[in-house]
Amino acid sequence: MLSDVDPEIAALIQSEQRRQSRKLRMIASENDVSRAVLEATGSVLTNKYSEGYPGKRYYEGQQVVDQVEQLAVDRAKALFGVDHANVQPYSGSPANLAVYLAFLRPGDTVMGMALPMGGHLTHGWSVSATGRWFRPVQYEVRKDTGRVDLDQVRELARAERPKVIFCGGTAIPRTIDFPAFAQIAQEVGAVLVADIAHIAGLVAGGAHPSPAGHAPVITTTTHKTLRGPRGAMILSDAQHAKALDRAVFPGLQGGPHNHTTAAIAVALHEAAQPEFREYAHAVVANAKALAEALLDRGFDLVSGGTDNHLVLIDLTSKLIGGKPAARALDRAGIELNYNAVPFDPRKPFDPSGIRLGTPGVTTRGLRPEQMPLIAAWIDRAIAAHDNDQALDRIAAEVEELLAAL
Questions:
Q1: Scanning 102, 190, 207, 320, which has the fewest C-beta atoms within 10 Å of its C-beta?
Q2: Is 322 labelled as part of a ligand binding site?
Q3: Hey, what domains does the chain have and what are their CATH numbers?
Q4: 24 is annotated as contributing to ligand binding
């Protein structure tokens, strides 16, 4: 038993379990996995080294592991309706790096959403290797709507002729127009990559349009809305499959994490069940209800609301920065993250906004009728951000709600 071998770590894990159970976990990229996913993650498959792919390994003893990985691959292909799936990337960033290795050479042009607008570091942002080794160009959102300006995307693509175009990101509260991006990519001869790390579970559950059939390459993490372990996948059409496989192995990494692969397979199996579709639509319903309740309380939401699991709040009008607001909310039992908002005048480490999502609270069983209560707690906590006693009272109310679920 872990408690016998290392009581310090065992105690810390127990503390984290208690912490998670007592808080509204509203970080948009977090969720609660099932007991089955946890069991697979902690299995003896972690003992096995498996460089290569099923049927083409560099180590013996792969009779079982090959079946595990092939099952994960087949389930990913069926769930997302694609020709090919690679389930070996360790996380989302290496999955995106594999795209660069597969289709670009250093100095080539890559196009993605600017990080302050809601994009991801690995879409060519300057502090990332992808922005240092390649020539990045970034598109933005409109100031008046907070939404992607597809006319600007088209003009930029025509002027810069990128070899790869990324759509998707980390703080996009609106539906991604995959057909429009596909048309632009086709016009300039670019490979369109849909990064659906945040919305993969919504796509799988039919609560967000799918990029399959529009983007020949799709990257995603396997946690977040998909509710699996911390891993990643690259999905693609047949034409791009070989280059992507070679980029993952041997291009970027060695042996895959077989215990994670098994847990991904479990999560994909769960996502194929009818109840997962209900969950995915409930995530969106909760986010929309929460957005409406926040608007009713005078909060400014980027793009005016949400179509998915994510709400991005600009706190400028509340006269508080995102960091102190996030810290106050954490003490109040509401866990989220501070986040830049489009055209943010503040620095990234002390931005104007906060980002929150509904995957975790939906998994816990909360419904749209409870979202106004959460909005009220958020409002109270921000107003009393420097009053520890007031924040502790909110935390007690949060814990009481969660204990009753």
A1: 320
A2: no
A3: 38-271 (3.40.640.10), 283-403 (3.90.1150.10)
A4: no
